[in-house]
Automatic annotation (TrEMBL):
This is Coenzyme PQQ synthesis protein E. Residues 8-213 form the Radical SAM core domain. CDD domains: Radical_SAM. It comes from Calidithermus roseus. One of its GO terms (molecular function) is catalytic activity. Keywords: Iron, Iron-sulfur, Metal-binding, S-adenosyl-L-methionine. Pfam families: Radical_SAM.
Length: 341
């Protein structure tokens, strides 16, 4: 009989955003990253965050993102090494600017492989390729696969785009990448909606948009309370959501002023965050829309993080939740306990 591993309260992932500086300047970047963004988390603080997070028995992964985490150079290798010593898996999210050739990619990744890097997560799409060609993505993927590092490629999803999953698969550099390294293209390459930030606008195909006919297909948020994020401002977030910077409620406090574990414990008692983990923002917004039909939400959003931002920023939805949450609290808490069992 299979034994069920008991749930250990706490996050499963620490994401470190060491800097918002990036070699690219993509329109609608969730963090407004570009080459001229100043500052980064000091290295001693990055290492301290890893040590603190490793005290969570639930923690299994440390992710380094940004901005562009590869700008850290040897400091990135040191941070990956420390996480590996704690028995944690590691992931680096990057635009692949450093992978100008397969030789260059191998040279950059060998040290990270030796440090214990588990996964290389590469980002591309129409916005990214204005600054980094897709050849870099494939050089990086091929080098990682050769070194036994897991590979994931995230592709921007929007209407009328040039760079697609199929374009990557048909590229000459992709030949032999999947069959030769036992990679499943359907798992390795994931298309995800690009989100409009501030007053920007991103066109989507209608079949990507959330509405009453398809909201039942949506599931709970796998990031809230499962991932904690350390930002360049030394803030701790309760999720790695793309719109987290725009949602004060997921900002738990300053890491220089409070204990990471205390901040997480306070967040884990927040019913809305629990509800997001169980049902996701799409179903919460749809529920609120049934209570107040004046809430206009259908066919406006494609990404879970985008509708989550809408949920937190809408006075109407906040009012409905405040007035009616007791109708669902028992059911939500029961399903949350089952989810974690």
């Amino acid at each position: 009989m299979n034994t069920v591993r008991p749930w250990k309260p706490g996050p499963s992932c620490l994401t470190v955003l060491p800097t918002f500086r990036c070699t690219a300047a993509c329109a609608n970047c969730c963090f407004g990253s570009h080459p001229w963004v100043p500052g980064r988390i000091p290295q001693e603080d990055i290492l301290r965050y890893i040590r603190q997070a490793a005290r969570f028995e639930s923690l299994s992964l440390v992710t380094f993102s940004g901005g562009e985490c590869f700008l850290l150079g040897d400091d990135l290798v040191e941070a990956v090494t420390l996480a590996t010593r704690f028995g944690l898996a590691t992931r680096c999210v990057t635009n692949g600017y450093w992978a100008s050739s397969e030789k260059a990619a191998l040279h950059r990744l060998i040290e990270l492989r030796d440090a214990g890097l588990t996964e290389l997560n590469l980002s591309t799409g129409d916005h990214h390729t204005r600054f980094v060609p897709i050849e870099n993505i494939l050089h990086g993927a091929r080098a990682a696969a050769q070194l036994g590092i897991g590979v994931a490629i995230m592709v921007e999803l929007q209407a009328e785009r040039r760079v697609t999953k199929q374009v990557l698969l048909e590229h000459p550099l992709a030949q032999g990448l999947f069959d030769g390294h036992d990679l499943d293209a359907n798992v390795t390459i994931v298309e995800s909606p690009w989100i409009a930030m501030e007053d920007g606008e991103v066109p989507y195909d209608t079949n990507c948009l959330i509405n009453a006919d398809n909201v039942h297909l949506r599931s709970g948020c796998t990031s809230i309370l499962s991932t904690i994020v350390a930002t360049p401002q030394k803030e701790l977030f309760a999720c790695c959501g793309i719109t987290a910077e725009k949602i004060p409620e997921v900002k738990l406090g300053l890491l220089d002023q409070a204990n990471m574990h205390d901040m997480y414990e306070a967040a884990s008692n927040d019913f809305i965050k629990i509800w997001l983990a169980v049902d996701g923002p799409e179903k919460i917004v749809a529920w609120a829309g049934q209570k107040d039909p004046s809430i206009e939400w259908e066919n406006r959003f494609a990404h879970q993080c985008d509708i989550c931002r809408f949920m937190y920023q809408s006075p109407q939805i906040k009012r409905v939740i405040r007035e009616h949450y007791q109708e669902v609290v028992g059911d939500v808490l029961l399903r949350f306990s089952l989810l974690r069992s």
